[in-house]
Each structure stands twice: as structure tokens, then as C-alpha cells.
């Protein structure tokens, strides 16, 4: 992706790119520029008590602007070169893309080494906090909320893949990047790894970037990126939302299995409902939940060309239709190190506040689940 097409002016009329010597690229003209002092004041000097999240390239704080508007302030690590690329990508990607299920970028700050993004504030944090948090951060989600989160996320992805111009592949769909507003409506956030897909492009060969547990095997193996990589990640997300657990967990079913591996095993046994989060307490429509999990398995098939488009996924989730399971093939997944004694080995933790790990290299092992 090129970053050399855009620029903007701060309120003092100075080009933002002048704050970033040596950077090939500029920022968009039509984005609001905040001063560092303004955001410092909004977050009480980036006080730890205002911290609401942390990703691979920066920390997110809750802030209040002088006019009373609550915002989420994402401060990128000054020493991260990759963070700078993410910063420019995120601005370039999301500024001109609007959808109810995408987080709205309000503005940014570029002063000295400071690179900060300012987003709308979403009251219920992220899906991983709701599902995996402890104490006050864990939220009880009934089936209505969970199904709406899956549906809204699917609609946001369908918009990015098929309606946005040019089309966009997110590359990092995961629970911590699905943010929830006061009504628990989902909004896709963190576009730092996003890639643009013009109509005449079928795939992009690129460095591997994403999150352990969500990476499609063909992308993890050879860096061949298509929209179907997002479809795969979304399938994993459905399973996490229904099970209430993390795809990075390694003891599903009481044995060393990944979530996707365990789901397929249960599917073959006709026991998929065993995967449902006990916190739902049997208060859910069984047929609908089963359909959602089967859609997840369609999304995570090993061969990318067998996965549905996101618009098809929306239809499969929204309509009470019988899925053609004869067309369903086993999923594929990867593990990023060779286990001993045949068991999957856990990845080295890259971010203590993330539920799963950011990857930037080709994994060692690719596994396809085979039918019994």
C-alpha cells in the first residue's frame, strides 16, 4: 500500500509530515488534528487508571475532550517502526470508510515522536473483555447479544470486502478488535494491518501478520492473502463467541486441542452443543446455535476457495436455512512451534494484555484436520 498520496495541515498550518522526517508518506487532509497537550489533558497525562486496552503497537486510553466528548485515545509506541506503518495505514484505510459496524476515527496527533489516533469511545470495551475478562470486566452475554455480535461483525466485514472502494481486507479479525457500544452492537476496530484490494487483484503476497489462532493456513504458510483469510478468522470468532473461550486455549475437551480442532471433533460426533458456553445455561435456541457453529466450520475450511464470501455468511446466519453439509470439508489450522509428545505447544506471549498473540513470521507447522 502506498502512503505518498495524502497530506493534511494542523491548526497552525504546518504540514503533519514535517513532524515525521524521513517518512515516505503523508496523512489525509480531511482528518481532525489534535495537539499532544490536548490529548494529554484528556487522558490525565495518559494515566494508568484511564487505560482500557493494549495491542501489539500501543496502548488505548479513555479520554474526555474539553467539550465533554468521550474518546478512545490510541497512543502508538514511539520506538516501533512497524507501529508507524500501522499508524499511516489505519488513517489511510478508515478515514473514508463509514459503516455502522466499523469504529469511527475522529482524528489524530502527530507531534515529534508522538503518534496518536483518536476514536469514538465504545462503552462496553471489546468482545474479549466481555467473554474472557475477570471480575468487573467480564460481562454476561445472553444468546441474543452473542448472535447480534456475530451478525454485526459479519455485516461489517461484508461491507469491507464487497462494498468499500477499493475493497479492504482487515487481516486481524479477533475478539479484542471487536468493540461493543452501549447496546452491545459490534464495531470492527484496529485497521493497522489492513490491505486494499482493487477489483482487478485476486490476492496479495505479503509478510505474515495477524494473530495466533486466527490465521488461515494458506496465508500463514505462504503469505498468500485474500479476503478468505478474514472469513477464516471470522469463523474462529464465531466459535469463541459461542464457547466463551479463547482460540489460543490449548486444552479444549480436557486434552491438548485447539478450539477449531475440538469443534470439528464434536461435529463429527454430532455433539457440537457441548461447545456452548455453560454461562448460557441452556437458555438458547439449539437449532440456531448449531447453525452458527456450522457456518463457522464452513468459514474455516482448509481450502480457501471452499469458504463462503462474507455476504453469503450474512445470509447463512440471518436465515433459518438448512446448510448443505455434504459440501463441508475439514478445517485447517497452524501451530507456530513443533510440540513434544504430539501435543500443541503454546506460543510465547507477546502482549500480556492481549488474549492471543500477534504474529509477524511464517509458522513452522501447518495442520489439516482429517475426518475419521
UniProtKB/TrEMBL annotation:
User: Which InterPro entries does the entry mention?
Assistant: CR_Ser/Thr_kinase, Kinase-like_dom_sf, Prot_kinase_dom, Protein_kinase_ATP_BS, Ser-Thr/Tyr_kinase_cat_dom, Ser/Thr_kinase_AS
The UniProt regions of compositional bias labelled Polar residues, in chain numbering, are 335-344, 357-372
The source's domain of life comes to Eukaryota
Q: What's one GO MF term for it?
A: metal ion binding
What SMART domains does UniProt report for this protein, alphabetically? S_TKc (SM00220)
Q: Where in the cell is it found?
A: Membrane
Instruction: Kindly state one GO CC term assigned in the UniProt record.
Output: membrane
Task: Write out the transmembrane intervals.
Answer: none
Active site per database record: 172
Q: What is this protein called?
A: Serine/threonine-protein kinase
Query: Which gene name belongs to this protein?
Result: LOC116209476
Amino acid at each position: 500500500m502506498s502512503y505518498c498520496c495524502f497530506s493534511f495541515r494542523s491548526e497552525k498550518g504546518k504540514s503533519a509530515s514535517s513532524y515525521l522526517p524521513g517518512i515516505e508518506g503523508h496523512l489525509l487532509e480531511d482528518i481532525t488534528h489534535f495537539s499532544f497537550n490536548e490529548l494529554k489533558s484528556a487522558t490525565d497525562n495518559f494515566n494508568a487508571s484511564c487505560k482500557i486496552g493494549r495491542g501489539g503497537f500501543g496502548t488505548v486510553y479513555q479520554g474526555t475532550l474539553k467539550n465533554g466528548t468521550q474518546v478512545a485515545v490510541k497512543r502508538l509506541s514511539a520506538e516501533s517502526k512497524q507501529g508507524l506503518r500501522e499508524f499511516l495505514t489505519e488513517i489511510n484505510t478508515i478515514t473514508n470508510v463509514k459503516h455502522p459496524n466499523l469504529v469511527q476515527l475522529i482524528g489524530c496527533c502527530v507531534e515529534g515522536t508522538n503518534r496518536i489516533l483518536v476514536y469514538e469511545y465504545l462503552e462496553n470495551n471489546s468482545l474479549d473483555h466481555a467473554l474472557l475478562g475477570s471480575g468487573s470486566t467480564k460481562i454476561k452475554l445472553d444468546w441474543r447479544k452473542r448472535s447480534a455480535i456475530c451478525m454485526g461483525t459479519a455485516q461489517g466485514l461484508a461491507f469491507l470486502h464487497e462494498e468499500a472502494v477499493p475493497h479492504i481486507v482487515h487481516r486481524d479479525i479477533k475478539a479484542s478488535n471487536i468493540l461493543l457500544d452501549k447496546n452491545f452492537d459490534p464495531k470492527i476496530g484496529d485497521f493497522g494491518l489492513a490491505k486494499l484490494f482493487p477489483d482487478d487483484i485476486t490476492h496479495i503476497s505479503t509478510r505474515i501478520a495477524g494473530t495466533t489462532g486466527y490465521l488461515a493456513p494458506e496465508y500463514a504458510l505462504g503469505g498468500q492473502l485474500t479476503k478468505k483469510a478474514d472469513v477464516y478468522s471470522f469463523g474462529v470468532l464465531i466459535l469463541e463467541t459461542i464457547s466463551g473461550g479463547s482460540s489460543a486455549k490449548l486444552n479444549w475437551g480436557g486434552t491438548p486441542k485447539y478450539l477449531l480442532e475440538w469443534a470439528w471433533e464434536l461435529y463429527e460426533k454430532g455433539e457440537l452443543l457441548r461447545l456452548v458456553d455453560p454461562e448460557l445455561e441452556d437458555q438458547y435456541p439449539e437449532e440456531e446455535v448449531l447453525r452458527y457453529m456450522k457456518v463457522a466450520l464452513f468459514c474455516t475450511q482448509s481450502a480457501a476457495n471452499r469458504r463462503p464470501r462474507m455476504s453469503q455468511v450474512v445470509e447463512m446466519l440471518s436465515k433459518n436455512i438448512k446448510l448443505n453439509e455434504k459440501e463441508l470439508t475439514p478445517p485447517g489450522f497452524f501451530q507456530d512451534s513443533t510440540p513434544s509428545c504430539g501435543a500443541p505447544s503454546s506460543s510465547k506471549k507477546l502482549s500480556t494484555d492481549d488474549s492471543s498473540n500477534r504474529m509477524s513470521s511464517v509458522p513452522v507447522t501447518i495442520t489439516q484436520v482429517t475426518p475419521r
